[in-house]
Structure formats: C-alpha cells, structure tokens
C-alpha cells in the first residue's frame, strides 16, 4: 500500500539548494532501559546532517523507529548508543549524511538514607542528560547530571560570628570572668542573634564517556559530585538529621567559586575531562551567583 503513496522527501528536490548542518526532531517521548531493567520515561532529540543541497528532506520516521526500538528494548550503554548512531547514518545513506546526533534527557530516581536516623530514607530525582555524536566516523559522548546542595556563605558566617562576639563582649563588659552556666545560658538565648545566609544551590556537571564502556556511570557521577560538595539536599529528615545537616553546613562554608573548583578537581580525578556550572540561588540578593569551570579543551556537544 505504501508503494502507491507519494514520498516527497525522496521524489522532490529542494527549492533552495543548500546543505543543512542538521535536521531532525526534538521533544520525542521515549522509554529508556537502564541497569537492572529499570524503565524510565525520557525526552529525546535526534538529527542527522543533510549535505546534499538538492535533497528535499530527511526521513524522520526512520529515526523515530530506530530510537523507539533500540531505547526500550536494550539496556542503555555507550556501545548501544554508538550502534544506534551508526544505524541512523545507515538509514540516511541516500541523503549522504555523515553526522548523527542524539540527546536523551530523563530524571533518575535514587533512594537516599537519612544522615543520622536509622532506617529513614526517601527518594530524590536527578535530572540527567546524555549526548552522543557520530561525525565522520568519530564518536563522542558526554553524560551530565544536576545535583542540588546547600551552600552557606563564608563572608556571612564571619560577619555573624563577629556580631555574636560583639554582643557577648557588650553583655559581659564589666566581668573579669563569666561562670560556665551563665555562658551556656547566654548561648542558648542569644547565639542565633545573627545567622549566616545559606541557600539551595545546583551544580550541572558533565563528563566525557568512552564509547566502549559497558555501563553509564550515573551513580558514580552523582556520588562524586555530592561527596565533593559535602552538603547535598536531603529527603526524609527528623530533628537529629536536621541538626546533622546544620553541622555539615557550618563546617562546609563555600562561595560559588569554591564549589566550582571542588567539583572540577573531583570529576577530573574520577572521570577525566569535565565541565561544571554551579548556581547559588541567593537568599541575600535578588540575583544568583554562578561560576563555571572545565577541563582545558573541553568541547560541549551542542
């Protein structure tokens, strides 16, 4: 039946004879099969180049079917992506395509234990993005994830400590010594007269992947980033966990610049080439503080 239907992309020529860097689709709903058989919804972008200036268009249904069949049927891995990219090119041999590109975006659910309370845990989702490109026979892949954390300003902490010191000196100005119990009572009543500002913050990190690696190092990437930052946001908490989190923040003051440097150092040690962008959603200012860092020579895939 389809043999009798017109095929404009194949049968007509372009009215304006120009090659295109890419043509494809974005916002494609897909299902991805991860380690352990976990099936997750995702959004995909996929494209090939169109070097033939006379070609009317690519065959988007071919790309769609390849993605649909491979993504839900096979475990997501670098070799699977490399094979899919090659099939995308093979399906467009009649267009002379030499470049295939794919991006997958999804939220990875991870169960996280509370800091202190035994048996207490909750779910966190980590937005992840996987990019892959086959260009003139060479494959490049990058894996990215967003990690949220708490950041306490070092300057604000120093100013708060100074205010606390001045208040203590004023309240006990005439005393040569202060009994221990009076000091403890004073701390209980007045130690929070000035508190440093902290805020929820986000780190978008990406690392280069070897095309022949057997697995996607999603868990390792998330853990490396969170360990470097020290104060990832929590899920389920009780008072003891909240106090433990406050202690972590107090012992882990950081500017946005500190966070970017920590992440680059940790990611390069664990994965090689990387890119980092951090944003501290300020509670003091109406604007955010941002910083970026990347391995020299890093080239993002789109």
Give short descriptive properties of this protein.
8 helices, Urate Oxidase, alpha+beta, elongated, 8-stranded antiparallel β-sheet, single chain, 302 residues
Could you characterize the architecture of this molecule?
The chain is an alpha+beta fold. It contains 8 helices and 8 strands, in the order αββααβββααβαααββ. It has 2 domains: 250 residues, Urate Oxidase (Roll), CATH 3.10.270; 37 residues. Helix content is 33%, strand content 32%. The protein has an 8-stranded antiparallel β-sheet with strand order 1-2-3-4-5-6-7-8. It is elongated. The mean pLDDT is 94. Pathway: Cofactor biosynthesis; 7,8-dihydroneopterin triphosphate biosynthesis; 7,8-dihydroneopterin triphosphate from GTP: step 1/1.
Which helices and strands, and how do they pair?
Layout: H1 8-11, E1 20-33, E2 39-50, H2 60-73, H3 78-90, E3 99-113, E4 121-135, E5 138-152, H4 154-171, H5 180-190, E6 198-209, H6 218-229, H7 239-250, H8 256-271, E7 274-280, E8 289-294
Antiparallel strand pairs: 1-2, 2-3, 3-4, 4-5, 5-6, 6-7, 7-8
Helix pairs in contact: 2-3, 6-8
Structure summary:
The chain is α+β, with helices and mostly antiparallel strands and 302 residues long.
**Approximate strand percentage:** 25-35%
Overall pLDDT score: 94
What's the helical proportion of residues? 25-40%
Broad shape: elongated
Q: In order across it, which strands form the biggest sheet?
A: 1-2-3-4-5-6-7-8
Structural class: alpha+beta
What is the CATH architecture descriptor of the largest domain? Roll
Number of separate structural domains: 2
Would you identify the CATH H-level superfamily of the largest domain? Urate Oxidase
Task: Count up the helices.
Answer: 8
The count of strands amounts to: 8
Radius of gyration: 27 Å
Kindly report how far apart the N and C termini lie. 40 Å
Biggest β-sheet strands, sense, barrel: 8 strands, antiparallel
* Low-confidence blocks of residues: none
Function: Converts GTP to 7,8-dihydroneopterin triphosphate.
Catalytic activity: GTP + H2O = 7,8-dihydroneopterin 3'-triphosphate + formate + H(+)
InterPro entries: GTP_cyclohydrolase_FolE2, GTP_cyclohydrolase_FolE2/MptA
Pathway: Cofactor biosynthesis; 7,8-dihydroneopterin triphosphate biosynthesis; 7,8-dihydroneopterin triphosphate from GTP: step 1/1
């Amino acid at each position: 039946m389809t043999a009798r239907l017109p095929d404009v992309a194949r049968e007509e020529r372009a009215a304006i004879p120009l090659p295109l860097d890419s043509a494809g689709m974005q916002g494609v709903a897909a299902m991805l099969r991860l380690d352990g058989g976990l099936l997750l919804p995702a959004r995909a972008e996929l494209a090939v180049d169109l070097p033939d200036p006379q070609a009317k268009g690519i065959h988007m249904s071919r790309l769609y079917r390849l993605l649909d069949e491979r993504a839900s049927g096979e475990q997501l891995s670098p070799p699977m992506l490399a094979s899919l990219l090659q099939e995308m090119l093979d399906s467009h041999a009649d267009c002379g395509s030499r470049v295939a590109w794919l991006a997958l975006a999804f939220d990875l659910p991870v169960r996280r234990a509370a800091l202190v309370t035994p048996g207490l845990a909750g779910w966190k989702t980590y937005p992840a993005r996987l990019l892959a490109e086959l260009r003139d026979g060479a494959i490049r892949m990058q894996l990215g994830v967003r990690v949220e954390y708490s950041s306490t300003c070092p300057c604000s902490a120093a100013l708060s400590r100074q205010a606390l010191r001045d208040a203590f000196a004023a309240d006990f100005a005439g005393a040569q010594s202060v009994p221990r119990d009076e000091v403890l009572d004073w701390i209980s009543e007045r130690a929070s007269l000035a508190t440093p500002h902290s805020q929820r913050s986000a780190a978008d990190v990406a690392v280069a992947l070897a095309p022949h690696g057997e697995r996607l190092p999603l868990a390792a990437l998330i853990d490396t980033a969170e360990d470097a930052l020290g104060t990832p946001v929590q899920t389920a908490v009780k008072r003891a966990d909240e106090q433990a989190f406050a202690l972590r923040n107090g012992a882990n003051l950081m500017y946005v610049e500190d966070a970017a440097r920590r992440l680059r150092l940790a990611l390069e040690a664990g994965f090689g080439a990387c890119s980092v962008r951090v944003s501290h959603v300020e509670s003091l200012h109406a604007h955010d503080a941002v910083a970026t860092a990347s391995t020299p020579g890093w080239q993002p895939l789109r």
